[in-house]
Amino acid sequence: MQTTVQYKNADADKKVAYTNELTKAEGILNNQTATQVQVNQAFTSLTASKTALNGVPKVKPTVSILSLTENPEEKSVTVQYSLEDKTKSLRSATAELYKETSLFARLRLIMWQEV
What is the pTM for the complete model shown? Predict the structure, then answer.
């Protein structure tokens, strides 16, 4: 289970809860004097903590250019883009500006959070 996406990408508190329940369940299974009630309770707790794991596969964010508007008087270009980040895995974004074939600037894009 701990090698699955469901576990690896889960929230830290949910991983800790699952690991704790797994350790408890293993202890009960290794206890020769454990009762069936204890085994059933351990199984129920472990199953619940496994179900609570919320990891999902990471999907690469995609950027689409919506428009490029040239402003010759100011010698500038405005770029409108759409960013799709389904799994909220994006940490930063950079725009690279080229003059002909030469890179002349790198700009860090400001990431807006949805409210």
Answer: 0.56
